[in-house]
């Protein structure tokens, strides 16, 4: 007969079942061997833990357990046979010889110089004597009036000597100013700057020559003073180039070094 209360996951079948799967199997149930083994293992573990706990932990009032060698045994000395043998016993490493050098006596450096007492003065000290008392001088008598001497004839005073006129000094020759160095002549020149003072012009020329020493060998210097918009400028020129191509090569070297210039 068919069962209308079957579950949704029961495979469909048209044949009626010969037994009811929900009914228990009749007869004796199997013995739970796995449960019995688990209980026995658990009981063994509990017994082992109890035994180890009793052997390692003392109860209240029990004497502490003896660990290691007793103190009485440690105080007694071990027999000579038990002592470790020194392999170097009986060896004479440092032996004394008959001709051994005597012990060196330490030599100490002299101590710092002590200040000496000052020598006694050799110059005898002269004791100053008290000044002798002066003898009483006789009383001064009034002086007699002196007679006027006869007047001598007045002599004419000599005329004063005429003052000599100072001799004119020879005019000193003035030192001639040193001639300014002439700029080297050439077909072209390179202007390397226009500054506000001659000192800066010299500095600009030196820096330009130092930037290209090979091309500037034997070249001259020229400084031109220019008035522009009420300000004074000093143009610095490097002169003495044989051709315009040499001047352009020198200017190109300066531009590569980061300086401004142009060929004139």
Automatic annotation (TrEMBL):
Biased composition (Low complexity): 145-155
Membrane-spanning residues: 33-53
Biased composition regions of type Pro residues, renumbered to the chain: 112-122
Keyword Membrane: yes
Stored Pfam families: SPOR (PF05036)
Superkingdom as given in the UniProt entry: Bacteria
Name of this protein: SPOR domain-containing protein
Keyword Mitochondrion (UniProt): no
């Amino acid at each position: 007969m068919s069962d209308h209360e079957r579950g949704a996951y029961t495979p469909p079948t048209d044949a009626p079942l010969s037994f009811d799967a929900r009914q228990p199997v009749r007869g004796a149930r199997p013995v739970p061997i796995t449960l019995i083994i688990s209980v026995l293992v658990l009981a063994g573990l509990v017994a082992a833990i109890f035994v180890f706990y009793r052997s390692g932990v003392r109860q209240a009032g029990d004497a502490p357990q003896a660990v290691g060698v007793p103190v009485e045994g440690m105080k007694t000395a071990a027999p000579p046979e038990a002592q470790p043998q020194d392999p170097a016993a009986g060896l004479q490493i440092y032996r004394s010889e008959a001709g051994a050098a005597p012990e060196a006596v330490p030599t100490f450096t002299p101590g710092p110089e002590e200040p000496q007492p000052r020598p006694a003065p050799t110059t005898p000290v002269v004791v100053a004597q008290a000044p002798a008392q002066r003898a009483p001088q006789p009383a001064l008598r009034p002086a007699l009036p002196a007679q006027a001497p006869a007047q001598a004839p007045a002599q004419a005073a000599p005329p004063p000597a005429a003052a000599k006129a100072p001799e004119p000094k020879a005019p000193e020759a003035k030192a001639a100013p040193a001639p300014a160095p002439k700029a080297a002549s050439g077909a072209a020149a390179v202007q390397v700057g226009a500054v506000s003072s001659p000192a800066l012009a010299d500095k600009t020329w030196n820096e330009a020559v130092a930037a290209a020493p090979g091309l500037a060998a034997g070249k001259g210097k020229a400084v031109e003073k220019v008035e522009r918009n009420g300000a004074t400028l000093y143009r610095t020129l490097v002169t003495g180039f044989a051709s315009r191509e040499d001047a352009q090569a020198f200017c190109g070297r300066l531009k590569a070094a980061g300086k401004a210039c142009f060929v004139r």
